[in-house]
Design brief:
Blueprint (H helix, E strand, L loop, with lengths): L25 H13 L12 E5 L5 H8 L4 E6 L2 H13 L6 E5 L12 E6 L7 H11 L3 E12 L9 E9 L2 E8 L2
Parallel strand pairs: 1-2, 1-4, 2-3, 4-5
Antiparallel strand pairs: 5-7, 6-7
């Protein structure tokens, strides 16, 4: 697993052993950021200079990819100890300690935010309906900016509705499906 583009392009990321963590593949990350970069409902300014929240962070691949592509700051929420160790190793290897914050914990029970984020990346375990619960909790804790764009990776056949947000695009990639949301007006 590697960073796909940007200033850390080609740098390797570590992942914990076993199947408790399911890192987003390089191909899916490339597709996600290509859509963010080029879609009429997004644009490169959604990433460049953004404050990013990577919830259910695992190895941190999504948030670190955003930093590599010009995001200003990334906050990671993860509760698995092995994933947290891999995440911290990846942050150190990329020398991104000054632009990151790691919060050990459950994304459905987050602490109060110090500042809202404009790009929310959610990659929970498949099939557990965690995205709506996490979005509600993150919103209540002040993590989601009013104009935020949310991106969720779910299983290909998994139903997904997020109250208060409308889907603007989705793409399937193997067993994964990316769904992009923005706040309803």
């Amino acid at each position: 697993m590697r960073i796909v583009a940007g200033r850390h392009r080609g740098r390797s990321l570590v992942a914990p052993q076993g199947d408790a963590t399911r890192p987003t593949s390089d191909r899916v990350r490339q597709a996600l950021f290509d859509m963010l970069w080029h879609a009429p409902w997004s644009g490169r300014e959604r990433v460049e200079g953004a404050r990013v929240l990577d919830a259910f962070a695992g190895t941190g691949a999504l948030g670190l990819e955003a930093l590599s592509r010009g995001a200003a700051r990334a906050v990671f929420i993860e509760q698995d100890r092995a994933a947290l160790a891999a995440l911290r190793t990846n942050i150190a290897a990329l020398r991104e300690a000054d632009t990151t914050r790691v919060i050990p914990g459950d994304a459905t029970k987050p602490p109060r935010a110090d500042a809202p984020c404009s790009l929310i990346l959610l990659d929970p375990p498949y099939g557990k309906d965690l995205v709506p619960r996490a979005v509600a909790a993150l919103g209540a804790a002040g993590w989601i900016a009013p104009d935020a764009l949310l991106v969720a990776e779910v299983a290909k056949g998994e139903a997904l509705e997020v109250p208060g947000f409308e889907p603007v695009a989705e793409r399937a990639h193997g067993a994964a499906r990316l769904v992009f949301f923005r706040a309803q007006a």
